[in-house]
Amino acid sequence: MRFVSWNINSVRLRLNALKRVADELSPDFICLQEIKSETTDFPADAIAEIGFPHQIIRGMKGYNGVAILARTPIAGGDTRDWCGRHDCRHIAANIGSDVELHNFYVPAGGDEPDPNINDKFAHKLKFLKEAETWSRDITPNAKRILVGDLNIAPHENDVWSHKQLLSVVSHTPLEVEALSDWQTAHGWIDAIRTIIPETEKIYSWWSYRNRTWPGSDRGRRLDHIWVSPALAESVKNAGILRDARGWEKPSDHAPVWADVDL
DNA sequence: ATGGTTGTGCGACAA
What we know:
single chain; alpha+beta; 14 strands; 6-stranded mixed beta sheet; about 20% helix; DNA-binding; 5 helices
C-alpha cells in the first residue's frame, strides 16, 4: 500500500495539483494537512472523481484542517483534540481490518524559539508532549502508520544548513529533543529514513519567502511518515515528490510517500 | 538585522 502525506496549503486552490499527485504517485491513501476549508466546503465530489471517493475530513474556516483520502472504504478512527483546542490538527482512520492511520498537523510555532515569550512555541511544545504521552499509552503491538506535517526537521541532513538553523523554529535542539521523545515513546520508525540514509540531504518544504527554488535549495524536511514497531520490516520504498514544489502555483510543501506491506 | 511570499477572505493573521 502506498501512503502519501502532503501539506496542500488550501485544498480548494490546488485540486489540479492533487490530481497530478494522484496520477504520478498512484497512492492508495492520501493524507492532507492545511486544507484551509470547512468540512462542508471540502471539494468531496471533485476528489472522488480523481479516484478517492472515501474521505474522512476534519476542517475549519481559514486555518489548519486535515483529511484522509482513500480508494477503498475506510472507517473513522480515534481522533481527539490536542491542547484543549478544536483546531483540527489530527484525524485517524481504520484501514483494512487491523491497521490505524494517523494524520497530524503539528503547530508551526511562530518565529521566536522561546516558550516564555512566544505562546505559539509554547503551544508547539505542549502539543509534542501530549503526542508523546498518547504514543506511550496506546497498545504497543498494533499496526499503525503516523504521517503528517510535524513542522520539525530533526537531523542535520534534514535541513540545508544545520549551523544556520540551530536557533530557527523547526530545527532547535528543544524541538528536536521533543520530537525524539515522541518517537521513542512508541518506538515509531522513520519510514523515509529507512530507505534514504541520513547521510543524504532531503527536504520536503521550501519557504515562499525567498526565491530559493530550485537554485539554492534551502529546504527542510518537515513532513514525515512513521510506522509502529509491528511494521518495522514492512517499509519497502519511500521518497519525496520534489518536483511538485516547482509546479505552477505550488504548495510550499512537497508530497512525501512510502510503500508499506500490510 | 531585516524582509522576503502565499493563503484566507476582505482585515489581519498565520505560516
